Here is the input.
Amino acid sequence: MSFPRYESYKESGVEWLGDVPEHWDVFHGRRLFTNRREVASDSDEQLAASQKYGVIPQTLMMELNDSKVMLALKGTESFRHVEKNDFVISLRSFEGGIEHSNYIGCVSPAYTVLKALKVVEPNFFRYLFKSKTYVSALQSTTDSLRDGKSITYQQFGDIQLVLPSVFEQQTIAAFLDRETAKIDALIAEQQRLIELLKEKRQSVISHAVTKGLNPNAPMKDSGIEWLGEVPEHWEVRKLNSFSNKITNGYVGPTRDILVEDGVPYAQATHIKGGRILFDGAYFVTLKWSSAHAKSILQLGDVLIVQTGAGTGDIGLVTEDEIGFNCHALIIVSVDKAVMYGEFLAQLLRSTYGRETLSSIQTGAMHPHLNCGEVKFISLPVPPIEEQAAIVSSISSSISQFESLIQEAVRATNLLKERRTALISATVTGKIDVRGLVSAKTEVKAETVPC
Here is the structure.
């Protein structure tokens, strides 16, 4: 959809703004907003700011983010007081917290608090301060991303800002509220589609590896509650009954063993989506790897993340990873006459496999799997030729699902790009939205007087 432009423009003299509508004013940030310096009082509630949630109580932020961040119990004398409709902005990244606040409280010195000096519509500046072009302009004034320094109020004040009339600010804010809500709804639909496709993919994998491909096959009770019935001609066996090796990768400090080039050294972070995605960041010497031969990877080995956030994630060793060594991963090498590594990997990634591994994890805060427990898990074992057919079918299905998921991801990214471009174009006057906001649209914009 194309949008109309204003009838006439003028040069702003500002790179990030370009030409602006002729009737718009342009001021340095310091002439529109002052740096609120009131020290927090003992009764002030501690607030936090984020791009997603705006300015909200720190306790609510922790709840929304499932965060364990603790409130400051002392040292709040350096905190700054915040009033309603102040802008609270992260000094570190700037993108981190931009929103006018409906709360009264205080924020840490990691933020700057801006108070309007002129009559402004907070919602208009909420969008302007979030716009990609403005954020880029502000970040270009500092080396904070490289040297760890924060953005200062002086740097904010040096950036020039546009100031349409208050009514026009309200109109722009109402337009963006409406249009971004539409885009956000479309993004949410795509994200729901992605989740549904992932769930369907998981269901297809789980059914194939636990029930087989023949819907008419006679079934029998597996004797395992989570597994239920399996095809009558399948076996149910302990993992160690058809494994040649179940062992750990090297467990110990890596500081003195890593080198710039040599034998690739796989770690838990490389195990993603059933594969090993080695990033070329870790290597050990051939001599060290040879001395730790038990953790050298072979074709068809199945890797299980043993500890940490990804505990239970599965990776299959392909031709690309033969000869790698690994760190703190459980390595399962199966008897290829009984089970294919590809089938075992899919089986352990199935709902049954994940629940089984989860049931033997230890440690709530720091989950961990022990080889001694893993080797005794019970798994369905189809005839070897049937495993090949199941793996082939799963591969075909996954390919189709991945194609649909990637299509939805691309659609989501395009919508996000459109949202970003629309906000930047609107707040800098590149499109005229005055005739695009219906008279029925109630502009609830709350202005902030000087």
Summary: The mean pLDDT is 88. The two ends are 38 Å apart (CA to CA). Residues 166-211 form the longest helix (46 residues). The CA atoms of residues 131 and 423 lie 6 Å apart.
